Recover the amino acids of this structure.
Protein backbone atom coordinates (compact mmCIF):
# COMPACT_ATOMS: atom_id res chain seq x y z
CA UNK A 1 0.00 0.00 0.00
CA UNK A 2 2.84 2.36 0.90
CA UNK A 3 4.51 1.55 -2.41
CA UNK A 4 1.32 2.47 -4.28
CA UNK A 5 1.08 5.79 -2.38
CA UNK A 6 4.71 6.54 -3.12
CA UNK A 7 4.20 5.83 -6.82
CA UNK A 8 1.09 8.03 -6.93
CA UNK A 9 2.98 10.81 -5.20
CA UNK A 10 5.81 10.55 -7.71
CA UNK A 11 3.37 10.68 -10.61
CA UNK A 12 1.76 13.82 -9.19
CA UNK A 13 5.14 15.53 -8.80
CA UNK A 14 6.15 14.62 -12.34
CA UNK A 15 2.82 15.80 -13.76
CA UNK A 16 3.05 19.15 -11.95
CA UNK A 17 6.63 19.56 -13.05
CA UNK A 18 5.73 18.98 -16.69
CA UNK A 19 2.72 21.31 -16.69
CA UNK A 20 4.70 24.52 -17.32
CA UNK A 21 6.51 22.84 -20.23
CA UNK A 22 3.20 21.64 -21.62
CA UNK A 23 1.75 25.13 -21.35
CA UNK A 24 4.70 26.60 -23.26
CA UNK A 25 4.35 23.98 -25.99
CA UNK A 26 0.63 24.67 -26.35
CA UNK A 27 0.89 28.44 -26.29
CA UNK A 28 3.83 28.49 -28.71
CA UNK A 29 6.92 30.66 -28.56
CA UNK A 30 6.68 34.21 -27.29
CA UNK A 31 6.03 36.79 -30.04
CA UNK A 32 9.59 38.12 -29.83
CA UNK A 33 10.92 34.66 -30.74
CA UNK A 34 8.44 34.25 -33.57
CA UNK A 35 9.86 37.26 -35.37
CA UNK A 36 7.94 39.97 -37.18
CA UNK A 37 4.16 40.46 -37.15
CA UNK A 38 2.22 40.63 -40.42
CA UNK A 39 -1.45 40.49 -41.35
CA UNK A 40 -2.41 37.50 -43.47
CA UNK A 41 -5.99 37.19 -44.72
CA UNK A 42 -7.22 39.40 -41.91
CA UNK A 43 -5.44 37.60 -39.06
CA UNK A 44 -2.14 38.23 -37.30
CA UNK A 45 0.71 35.97 -38.34
CA UNK A 46 4.39 35.82 -37.42
CA UNK A 47 7.58 35.23 -39.34
CA UNK A 48 10.05 32.59 -38.17
CA UNK A 49 12.61 35.12 -36.95
CA UNK A 50 13.76 38.73 -37.10
CA UNK A 51 14.18 40.07 -40.63
CA UNK A 52 17.64 40.76 -42.03
CA UNK A 53 18.74 44.33 -41.15
CA UNK A 54 20.06 47.28 -43.16
CA UNK A 55 23.83 47.59 -42.81
CA UNK A 56 24.58 43.91 -42.33
CA UNK A 57 26.20 41.65 -44.88
CA UNK A 58 23.50 39.80 -46.78
CA UNK A 59 23.53 36.17 -45.64
CA UNK A 60 24.46 33.81 -48.44
CA UNK A 61 21.87 31.24 -49.47
CA UNK A 62 21.17 28.71 -52.18
CA UNK A 63 18.01 28.48 -54.25
CA UNK A 64 16.92 26.41 -57.26
CA UNK A 65 16.52 27.75 -60.79
CA UNK A 66 14.35 26.50 -63.67
CA UNK A 67 17.02 23.95 -64.68
CA UNK A 68 16.92 22.51 -61.13
CA UNK A 69 20.43 23.85 -60.50
CA UNK A 70 21.39 25.37 -57.18
CA UNK A 71 22.28 29.05 -57.43
CA UNK A 72 23.89 30.94 -54.55
CA UNK A 73 23.53 34.61 -53.68
CA UNK A 74 27.32 34.91 -53.65
CA UNK A 75 27.43 34.05 -57.36
CA UNK A 76 25.93 37.52 -57.98
CA UNK A 77 28.67 39.33 -56.05
CA UNK A 78 29.55 42.60 -57.80
CA UNK A 79 25.93 43.07 -58.93
CA UNK A 80 23.29 45.16 -57.21
CA UNK A 81 20.41 42.92 -56.18
CA UNK A 82 16.73 43.34 -55.50
CA UNK A 83 15.24 40.36 -53.69
CA UNK A 84 11.51 40.30 -54.40
CA UNK A 85 10.19 37.81 -51.82
CA UNK A 86 6.57 36.64 -51.77
CA UNK A 87 4.28 33.70 -50.83
CA UNK A 88 3.31 32.33 -54.26
CA UNK A 89 2.94 33.29 -57.91
CA UNK A 90 -0.58 31.85 -57.73
CA UNK A 91 -1.81 34.98 -55.94
CA UNK A 92 -2.64 38.22 -57.80
CA UNK A 93 -0.39 40.53 -55.77
CA UNK A 94 2.64 38.25 -56.08
CA UNK A 95 2.22 37.98 -59.83
CA UNK A 96 1.79 41.76 -60.06
CA UNK A 97 4.99 42.40 -58.09
CA UNK A 98 6.98 40.19 -60.47
CA UNK A 99 5.55 42.06 -63.48
CA UNK A 100 6.27 45.44 -61.88
CA UNK A 101 9.88 44.62 -61.04
CA UNK A 102 10.35 43.08 -64.50
CA UNK A 103 9.22 46.34 -66.14
CA UNK A 104 11.50 48.47 -63.96
CA UNK A 105 14.54 46.17 -64.00
CA UNK A 106 15.34 46.82 -67.67
CA UNK A 107 16.17 50.44 -66.76
CA UNK A 108 18.60 49.57 -63.95
CA UNK A 109 22.33 49.27 -64.53
CA UNK A 110 24.29 46.36 -63.05
CA UNK A 111 21.17 45.21 -61.19
CA UNK A 112 19.53 41.79 -60.98
CA UNK A 113 16.04 41.16 -59.61
CA UNK A 114 15.69 37.76 -57.91
CA UNK A 115 12.08 36.67 -57.42
CA UNK A 116 12.02 34.28 -54.46
CA UNK A 117 9.16 32.06 -53.33
CA UNK A 118 8.35 28.51 -52.28
CA UNK A 119 6.81 27.84 -55.71
CA UNK A 120 8.39 24.91 -57.52
CA UNK A 121 10.89 25.86 -60.26
CA UNK A 122 8.59 24.43 -62.95
CA UNK A 123 5.73 26.75 -61.93
CA UNK A 124 8.03 29.78 -61.75
CA UNK A 125 9.48 29.07 -65.20
CA UNK A 126 6.04 28.52 -66.73
CA UNK A 127 4.74 31.78 -65.27
CA UNK A 128 7.68 33.87 -66.51
CA UNK A 129 7.61 32.25 -69.96
CA UNK A 130 3.85 32.73 -70.34
CA UNK A 131 4.08 36.35 -69.19
CA UNK A 132 7.17 37.11 -71.28
CA UNK A 133 9.15 38.20 -68.21
CA UNK A 134 12.86 38.09 -68.96
CA UNK A 135 14.25 40.89 -66.77
CA UNK A 136 13.87 38.96 -63.53
CA UNK A 137 15.38 35.71 -62.27
CA UNK A 138 12.86 33.36 -60.58
CA UNK A 139 14.39 31.16 -57.88
CA UNK A 140 12.64 28.56 -55.76
CA UNK A 141 13.25 28.40 -52.00
CA UNK A 142 11.47 25.07 -51.57
CA UNK A 143 14.59 23.43 -50.14
CA UNK A 144 16.56 26.49 -49.02
CA UNK A 145 17.05 26.18 -45.27
CA UNK A 146 19.82 28.76 -45.32
CA UNK A 147 17.47 31.45 -46.69
CA UNK A 148 14.91 30.61 -44.02
CA UNK A 149 17.52 30.85 -41.27
CA UNK A 150 19.34 33.92 -42.61
CA UNK A 151 16.41 36.14 -43.59
CA UNK A 152 13.70 35.20 -41.06
CA UNK A 153 10.85 35.58 -43.55
CA UNK A 154 9.10 32.21 -43.58
CA UNK A 155 5.65 32.40 -42.00
CA UNK A 156 5.65 30.42 -38.75
CA UNK A 157 1.87 30.45 -38.31
CA UNK A 158 -1.33 31.80 -39.86
CA UNK A 159 -3.19 30.73 -43.03
CA UNK A 160 -0.03 30.76 -45.20
CA UNK A 161 2.24 29.04 -42.68
CA UNK A 162 5.33 27.61 -44.36
CA UNK A 163 5.32 30.12 -47.23
CA UNK A 164 7.33 33.35 -47.36
CA UNK A 165 6.07 36.70 -46.16
CA UNK A 166 6.05 39.55 -48.69
CA UNK A 167 9.25 41.56 -48.50
CA UNK A 168 11.90 43.40 -50.50
CA UNK A 169 15.61 43.37 -49.70
CA UNK A 170 18.06 45.51 -51.68
CA UNK A 171 21.76 44.57 -51.65
CA UNK A 172 24.66 46.64 -52.99
CA UNK A 173 27.64 45.50 -55.08
CA UNK A 174 29.61 44.65 -51.94
CA UNK A 175 26.93 42.30 -50.63
CA UNK A 176 25.61 44.69 -47.97
CA UNK A 177 21.90 45.18 -47.24
CA UNK A 178 20.95 48.79 -48.02
CA UNK A 179 17.14 48.63 -47.88
CA UNK A 180 14.43 46.34 -46.51
CA UNK A 181 10.66 46.37 -46.48
CA UNK A 182 8.46 43.80 -44.82
CA UNK A 183 4.97 44.40 -46.21
CA UNK A 184 2.78 44.41 -43.11
CA UNK A 185 -0.40 43.33 -44.90
CA UNK A 186 0.54 40.46 -47.16
CA UNK A 187 -2.11 41.28 -49.78
CA UNK A 188 -0.54 44.75 -50.33
CA UNK A 189 2.12 45.46 -52.93
CA UNK A 190 5.64 46.45 -51.91
CA UNK A 191 6.77 50.07 -52.33
CA UNK A 192 8.58 49.78 -55.66
CA UNK A 193 9.67 53.41 -55.89
CA UNK A 194 11.34 53.52 -52.48
CA UNK A 195 13.13 50.25 -53.16
CA UNK A 196 14.48 51.56 -56.45
CA UNK A 197 15.56 54.87 -54.88
CA UNK A 198 17.84 52.89 -52.56
CA UNK A 199 19.93 52.09 -55.65
CA UNK A 200 20.32 55.71 -56.78
Amino acid sequence: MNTVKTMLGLCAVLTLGLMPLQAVAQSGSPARERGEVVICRGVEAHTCGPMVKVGQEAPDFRAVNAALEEVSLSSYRGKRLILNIFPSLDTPTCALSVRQFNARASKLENTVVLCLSMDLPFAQSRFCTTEGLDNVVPLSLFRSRDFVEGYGLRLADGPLEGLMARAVVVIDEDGRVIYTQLVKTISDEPDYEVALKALQ
